[in-house]
Amino acid sequence: MNPILFTRGVPPQESIPIEKLSICAREVISEHGVDVLQYAPSPGYLPLREYLSERKELTAERVLLGQGSLQILDMLIHCLLQPGDVVAVEQPTYDRVLTLMRRADLCIFPIDLRPDGLDLDQLETALVGGLKLRLMYVIADFQNPSGALMPLNQRQRLVSLSQQYRFQIVEDAPYRTLRYNGEDLPSIFDLSPATVIQLSSFSKLISPGLRVGYAVLPENLHSILSKYAEDTYINPSYLNQAIVLRFIQKGWFEGHITFLKDLYSHRLQMMLNALQSHLDRICAWTKPEGGFFVGLWLGNGRTLAEVWERSEAAGIRLTDGRGFFERGGESFIRLPFCALDEQDIHQGIQRLAALLDS
Amino acid sequence: MNPILFTRGVPPQESIPIEKLSICAREVISEHGVDVLQYAPSPGYLPLREYLSERKELTAERVLLGQGSLQILDMLIHCLLQPGDVVAVEQPTYDRVLTLMRRADLCIFPIDLRPDGLDLDQLETALVGGLKLRLMYVIADFQNPSGALMPLNQRQRLVSLSQQYRFQIVEDAPYRTLRYNGEDLPSIFDLSPATVIQLSSFSKLISPGLRVGYAVLPENLHSILSKYAEDTYINPSYLNQAIVLRFIQKGWFEGHITFLKDLYSHRLQMMLNALQSHLDRICAWTKPEGGFFVGLWLGNGRTLAEVWERSEAAGIRLTDGRGFFERGGESFIRLPFCALDEQDIHQGIQRLAALLDS
Fold it and tell me: How far apart are CA A207 and CA B38, in angstroms?
């Protein structure tokens, strides 16, 4: 029995517009030539920076393009923080960010995120008690790994805490565009565009392999980050950034997003239906309105360790939830649904239920 | 009078094979699709790693591809060194490397490089005297900024010092392929392939903007660097790496190198002729057999500062030599010749001579 993979949260192969990107690549090299093949300024391909900034009614000087948003976060950590500085994260959060923070010897303050929301009281109590928080990393829309959506009042409260206690908010928004139902909330960045740093990328919207991520930065940080980027890698590949812009300029982006939403929303619905059918009253889970993931918490004090060794034989492969936690996570399972077809989702959840039942 | 630019050492626009790269880009996306557009392992595109390793009779497990070689050096610094560790460099050396080392709070031990060679006695005396050297960064072939070629006996002596005193050699070899006359010497890597780290890239051979650099690493370091790279940026863009390989596989690389050598060797010869005609007995300079640069030392205790303010009016723009030095450099001028046509080279050196004479 081939295991059904509830592991990495990558876009499915069928989501990548290969032939269109091939056309874009050929065109941008032929038409722009040296502009995309020579050394260039570190903040990235200006026309794409302009496109992104205009949509936010900002100047292009606020946008820094990089080779994926993770590396921009790493540079931010190097530029803004010292070893021992305190940074807050939702718990669970994106595992690679925990790795970066630990590598930089930061002190991680985890804030519990449950299916019913983020425990901001926990944060405020600590701040009132004297916690010297420097930065909070947060994924407000369709969080990785939980799929959670932060309600508007929590976004507002977080911004107001950041202003009162003077910590930097870094909002990572790679899934924000992928909303399958309901209405957009203002991003945390939208609530305070002069102070919040927003990261995002085209990895989930066009292609991960192009490595086109970006940050929208407060003015004073843009030059600091640009200098750090130049010192690190001179400049990111403009070719890849120009391919992304060409894809947009040809009018292919909106249709592609519609295609992705249609593909993924059915998979999400199948996942939620299967969970309801098979795991109701045994587990708790989020009910995402977008993104790549449903977060599942085992009930009754059960842990993944109890079934871990039998999971392959049961026909599923799971990710150890502890990777998304600074402390704990033994009962958490991330369920990515985008790269599985509907039959695999249904069967996979059935197998998970059988495994938990055995 | 437009100034003639003796400033940045970038390949000239006419050296970049735009139309051929456009074909390669389209082909690799169409044919390899998801393989170059999806998330992927951090060491880089395996077929290009195999091509590079086979030429050195190594396994592909020794090769790490990155987004330019500078960033690989930055990762090496983070993986191998601590603040305060001592690193040696030729003086002058590549300015961006000094920046990276200072950023990492390393203690830089500069070894004087003059037109008559590198002063390895200086290094050995310090090592005998107890210097705890951790790493030496060296460009043995057509050095940036001096154009110097390290003789074979110095390469051998450096390797033997590194073994006796247990420091890591990092050899940067981006110009090695661009030899315009004379015979190849063994690289430092060739003399000790199990221990020396060699960096190189396709920036000077195909296109800087593709950002395809690489390291050949000792076995034990490859997994450490790969993990660091994955934690930093997940993976480099395989698209760019596949474009480079396709360019090679189509048989275009060798002809392109011949074209570059022909273009640059005439420019180098013009530079050396002009220096001989106009600055003999006033300055000393290297006589490079390849690469991008001639290094010029002003004679008679003169410094660039004396003429700096008048250089634009004299019709030339120069780089402040101190950027290539940990200490000193007031009398050093880097003269890049690849991106200037023969007339500009001749006229530029004439103007420099007039400036120094004024």
Answer: 6
